[in-house]
Amino acid sequence: MPPLLIFQVLAWTMANVWRIFVRFLPFSASAACLVYTLSACQAFWSSKLNGAWAPAFPEARTNFVIALVALPIWGLSMAFFTLAWVVVTRFWDFLRNRLRRKRSYEPLAVDLNDAQGGRRNRQGQGNHMDHAFSGAVRNAGWFVLWGGYLSIAFFGLYMLRTYELPIDHRFKRDVELANRVPKSEGYGTGEQIFVAAMFYNNGGVLPYWIKEVSKLIYYLGPDKVFVSIVESNSWDNSADLLEEFDRKLEGMGVSRRILTRDTSIERPVSMGSAPPRIKFLAAVRNLVMQPLVEHGGYTRVIFSNDVFIEAESIVELLYTKGGDYDMACGLDLAYWGLYDQWVIRDRLGRLASTLWPYFLEDTGFRAVMADEPAPVFTCWNGIIAVRADPFLPPNLRTGQLSTSPLSRPLAPTHPAYPRPLNLTPAETPPVQFRSSAEGECFSSESFLLPYDLRRQFDLNNIYVNPRVINSYSWEFYVWFKYITRHWAVKWWIERVENGNGVHLAKMILGDPAKVWQWDGGELVMSE
C-alpha cells in the first residue's frame, strides 16, 4: 500500500475518532466524574472514621447515604463543567468560522448557467437551514442537560436545609426563646426538676453537655431546678470544667451541689470486674441523689449519663406521653444502633435488637416505627426522666405513689423480701441504686432501678422515647441524630429496610434448646 494512502487512511481514522471523542466526551466525562465523586466520598467516609463505621451499619444504608451526599456534589460539578464546555466549544466555533472567512475568496469570473446557479443557491439555502436547525437542537440539548445537573445540585441544597424533622425539634423554638428572654420561672410546666449526673474523664463531652443543660435550665426556669453532679477520679480537665459550670450556675441563681475530685467512694482497682464496678457505680449514683433524698422538694428527676444530647431532646423526654409516665428513657445509639443491650428489655422482658426498630415484640416494634414512645420492661439508655417520690422518704413525698397494696407479690429473690402484706407503695422505704443481690440474675444498677420501681412501687408505665437521641461519641451522635433522622434516610430505613424482619429474630446464647429468661423475679427456665 502506498505511503500516501496509508497516511490518508490514518488521518481519516484519527479525524473520525476525534469527532466521536468530542461528541461523547461530555457523557464519558460525566460518568467518570460520578465514579470519582462516589469514590472520594467513600474514601473520606473511611478515613474520617478510621474505617470503624464501614462494617458497623447496614451496607445498603451506608451506600445510600454516600450517594445522597455525592450526587449533589456531582451535579454541581457537572453543571459548572457543562457550562464551561459550551462556552469553550462555542468560542472555538467562532474562531474557526472567522478563520474560514479569511481564507474564502470571490472568483473573478463564474461561468454558470441560470439553472445550475439556482440549483446551487437552493441547495446552499437548504444546507444553511439544516445547520441552523441542528444548532438550535444542540443548544437546547445542552441547556436541558445543564438544567438537569443544576437541579440535582439544588436538590442537594434543599436536602441540606430540610434535614431537621419538625417532630424531632418541636421544642427548639421554645428553648431558643427561653435563652433569648430568660425568666426565673422558665417556660416549662412549672414542675420542680432535679437534674442529676456523674462524670469521670469526660472532658470531651462536658463542654457540649454543659451548654445544652444550661439551655435546658433557662427553659425549665432557674428557680425550678436543682443540679447535682459528682465527678471523681478523673485525670483530665473534667473537674475544671464542672467548677466553671458551678460558677455559671451561681450567676444564674440555680440551686446546686457539684462535687469535684470526690474520693469519698473508693473506686475499684479494676473496673473490668463487673460486680465491683456495679457496686461502685450504684454508690456514686446514690451520692448524686443525696440532696434530693435529704430535702425533697422536687417531683421529677432527670438523670443523665456522659452523653451528647440537645436541650430540646431533654424537653422531649420530659413531655413523653404528655407527661403521663413513671419513667421515660432516651435512645443511646452507637455502631449499628441501640447501644445499651444489657439494660433494656422489651415490654415482655425480652432482649432487644441493636437494629431499628429495636424491639422484637409487636407493640414496641410498631411504636418505634411510628416514632412514638414504646412501652418497655426496663431501660436507661443514656438519660432518664423519672418520678421523684420513690427516692424520697414517705414524709417528703408529694402524693405520686399508690396507697393500695401491691398488685403482685414481691419475688423471694428480691433483697426487700419478705415484705409486709399491707405495706403500700406510698409507705415503702426509698429506692436506691443497687447491685444484684444473692439469688438474682446479675444485672446493672441501671436495670435494677426500673425493676424495683415496678416490683416495689407498682410504677409500670415505663417507656423508651425514640425521638430522644443521644450517644457517648460525637461521630455516632451526628450519624444517628442528624443523618439517619434526615427525612430521606428515614424514608429509606422505614420503607426500604422496613425492619428487615428484625421482629422475627431471636438472640440465643448457648444451647438454643434451653433458653433462660429473667424478668427480674425468680429465675425460671423455659423450654
Would you kindly provide a written description of the structure presented here, covering whatever features stand out?
The protein folds into 2 domains: 3-102 and 122-161, no CATH class; 172-405 and 460-526, Spore Coat Polysaccharide Biosynthesis Protein SpsA, Chain A, CATH 3.90.550. Strands 1, 2, 3, 4, 5, 6, 7, 8, 9 and 10 form a 10-stranded mixed β-sheet that branches. The protein is elongated, with a radius of gyration of 35 Å. 47% of the residues lie in helices and 12% in strands. β5 and β6 form a beta hairpin. The protein is of the alpha/beta class and 527 residues long. The termini are far apart. It is built from 12 helices and 12 strands.
Helix percentage: 40-55%
User: What's the helix-strand series?
Assistant: HHHHEHEHEHEHEEEHEEHEHHEE
What's the CATH class label of the largest domain? Alpha Beta
Mean pLDDT: 84
Number of domains: 2
Shape call = elongated
CATH structural fold name of the largest domain = Spore Coat Polysaccharide Biosynthesis Protein SpsA, Chain A
Assigned CATH architecture of the largest domain: Alpha-Beta Complex
Structural class: alpha/beta
The low-confidence parts are: 523-527
Helix count? 12
Q: In angstroms, what is the radius of gyration?
A: 35 Å
Distance between the termini: 89 Å
